[in-house]
Input
Amino acid sequence: MNIVVCVKYVPDAQSDRTFNESDNTTDRVGVDGLLSELDEYAVEEALKLVEAGEGEVTVVTVGPDQAADALKKALQMGADKAVHVKDDAIHGSDAVATSLVLAEAIKKTGTPDLVITGMASTDGTMSVVPAMLAERLGLPQVTFASELSVDGSTVTIRRDGDAASETIVATLPALVSVTDQINEPRYPSFKGIMAAKKKPVEEWALADLGIDASQVGLDAAWTKVESFTKRPPREQGQIVTDDGDGGTKLAEFLAAQKFV
Amino acid sequence: MPATRLMPTEEGQDLIDLTREICQKELLPQVDEAERRAATTPELPRDAFRVLGRAGLLSLPYPEDFGGGGQPYEVYLQVVEEIASVWMSVAVGVSVHSLTCYPVAEFGSRAQQEALLPAMLSGDQLGAYCLSERNSGSDVASMSARATADDEADPTAYTLKGTKAWISHAGHADFYTAFVRTSDDGGRGLSCIVVPGDAEGLAFGAPEKKMGLHCDTVSEVHFEGVQVPADRLVGTPGQGMAIALSALDSGRLGIAAAATGLAQAALDRAVAYAKEREQFGRPIGDNQGLAFLLADMEAAVTSARASYLHAARLHDAGRPFTKEAAVAKLVCTDNAMRVTTDAVQVLGGAGYTQDFPLERYMREAKVTQIFEGTNQIQRLVISRQLLKNSSSLSKRG
Output
C-alpha cells in the first residue's frame, strides 16, 4: 500500500511567532521552524500501516527552503522518500492555492492508495486543506480520524464528536485526516537519522507541476491579512485579600464575570 | 538559552536536536518529582534509559558493527551534556553505561566482542562498573575482591568473592563489569570480568543515602561465590589495572560533559531569574554586582565546555589525552560546583528552597568532584604527566 503524507513546516509554537511587516504573511525566517506536531500523527499512522503490510510512505511538503527540515524529520522517523515543492511564487498562498499545489504534486508521485494529513496545521489551524485536497483529487474525504484501519479496498475510521462517535467507511483510494488522539508518534532514532541521509528528496517547482504562477501566491489569495496588531501584554490579575470573607469575594468575582 | 554548538557533522547536529526533543518531552516533565521521590525511596528511572536506548543514545561512541553509533567523542559527549542539562542522574547513568562497555570494546577479543557487545549496545541493557571497594577507592591496586580459577593452568571458570562499593545501577544492571584480584601481585594482579546480571551469588546492599543525584541509585555489590565462565575475562589475567585506568580516561570525559550540562542548566535558570526578579524597582540583573556574577558563570561554563571538547578531539584523533581528560574533569566539575553555588546565590532565598531546582543542582555538583577519580587524583594525574614529559625541554636546552 502506497501512502502519501502531507506535512507542513511551521514556526515553533514555543518561540515568539509574528508576521512579516512588508506583506502581513507569517514570518518563517526570523523564527525557528519544525515539522508541525499535528503532522507527526499523520506520519506515524502511515508508518504503522506500511510496517504492518508493505508499500512506501512518501512525504510531501510545500514551503520555503527551510521546509526541508520538516521532510528530514519525517524521513528520520521512517518515511521512504520525500517531495519538496518550492517556488518563490508560492509565497503568501492561501489554503485554496496550497491545496492546488499539493494535489498536482501528489498526482505527479503516482496514484497513492491513501493520502493522510494532520487535522490542521499548528500555525494556520484552518483544517480546510484536507477537504479541498480530497475534492481536487476526486477522493472520498474522511476527516478527523481518531482510529484508522484498512481492510482490502476500504478504510474505516472513527470520528469522535461531542455527542457521539461515528464509524465511517470509505473505498480506497481515499484521503484521511487524523487527530492527535490516533497514536503516539515515535521519535527518530540514531539509525533513522543515518538512514534518512540516503533517502531521496525530490524538489519540484511550479513549472514541474504545470501550475501557472498567477494561480498561487499572495496576489491570487482569496483572503489577505490587511493589518495586524500585537496582542497587548496581559494585565495583572485582581488580588483578593482574605479577611475572612475571601470565599464571598471570590464568588462575587466569578458572578460578576458571569462564570457562575 | 541552549548552548551554542559547532557540530562536526550534520548527523551530529541532528543528534543534538533529537536529544533536546526527547529531553524536553520525556525527561523534563518527570525529573523534579522523580528526584524528590528518590531522595526517600531510591528508584532508578529505568524507563528514561529505555527511551534513550530506543533512540540509539546509549551506545553512540561504539562501533556500528556491533550496534553502536560510531560517533566521535566530540559528538557523544555533547549529547551527554544536553541530557545533563535536563536530568543529571540520567546523564551520569549514560556515562556509566558507556564506561561499562569500554573494556570489552577496547580490550576484548573479537569473539568476546561478537558475543557480548550487541546486547550491551542494544539500548535495552544497562551496565554497572564495579571498581571501588570500601577500603579501595583512589588506591585501586589495594582491592581485595577476588576471582579464583578452577584450574590455574587452563581455567574454564572463575569464582568471584568480595564486595564492591558505591556501584551505580547495582541491582538493576544487566551486566557487571567487575575488576577483581586474580593474583597477589598488587596492581599487576587485577583482572576485568564481565558478570551477567542474573548470575547466581550476586547480592546487593541497601541503597546508599546520598546528598543528591538520588535517581542514580548506588549500593554495594556482593560477589558470594559467583561462577563466571573464563571466556568472560577481558584481555589477559593481570591486565585489569591497565584496562581500568584506560577506561577512566574516557569515563572522566563523560563526567566532565555532564558537569558542564549541569552548570549550563544552573546558569540558564539564574539568568532567567535575574531578568524577572525586581527589587528597588528594577530587575536584579541590572545591578552590576549581580550581572558580573552571571558573566563569570558564563565564562566558566563556556571554558569548561572548551576543555572537555579539546580532550575529546585528541581522543578522536587517536592522540594521547590522559592529561587533557584529567584537566577537563577537574575544570568542568570545579566549575560546576562554583556555578551551581553562585546560581543559588542569584536566586537568593528562592534558590535555597525546593521550589526551584537550584539547590538540587548544587547538591548534584558536589559528587562530580568526587567520583570517577577525585579532583585530587586528577591533579596527581596531571602533574605526573607534566613531570614525566618535562625532560625534553631541558635536554634540548
In short: Residues 59 and 153 of chain B are 36 Å apart (CA to CA). The longest strand of chain B covers residues 157-168. The domain at 10-120 of chain B is CATH 1.10.540.10 (Butyryl-Coa Dehydrogenase, subunit A; domain 1).
